Predict the 3D structure of the following.
Amino acid sequence: VPETQRQRLFFALWPDASIREGIGAVRRNALGGVGRPIRPENLHLTLVFLGEVEPEGRMCAEAAAAAVRAPAFELRLDDLGWFRRSQIAWLGAAHLPRALEDLVNGLHDGLSHCGFPREERPFKAHVTLARKVRSAPSVVDFAPVPWLVQGFALVESIAQPQGVRYAPLAHWPLLPEG
Ligand code: ATP
Ligand code: MG
């Protein structure tokens, strides 16, 4: 397969404009200019990282996505944190909704049939706010962002001279809530 047909892909929750604005506001208020802020248009929550994928793998992954049955849910982004190893500051959810757990597990089940290695680390729902954050940000009060999640996306990560850009390629709806 020619290299040009390979794509760097991941499944993600992709915020709409208002959620994106809400996450960006938390980033500005809580972190200011600390580290290297993620550009607003790049803010997302990774569900499963696939890596460099050939066209067949993408087709299999899209079929796996289409087969997932999980309900819509509310994700309350109420937890600010910092990963020492990767030096990122993030906004996450203190409570992992059952529907989100089911969605991630459902994707993993389908993807295992596509030959993707299963992620060993436990899933941690988080939106990266800034990179190159060298020390734990100080604790601040902030208004949680309530995110009504009604679907998920397959996203391509495109390396560009001015930095990575993410392009949603396909979208699947979740089942109506309740
Ligand atoms: P760059 O790698 O160019 O600095 P990036 O990390 O934002 O930028 P990608 O590496 O393409 O871009 O990652 C896309 C998404 O997948 C990001 O949310 C990233 O955190 C996540 N990701 C990347 N690699 C892994 C991995 N090995 N396991 C889990 N998630 C990953
Ligand atoms: Mg990376």
In short: The mean pLDDT is 96. The first helix runs from residue 17 to 31.
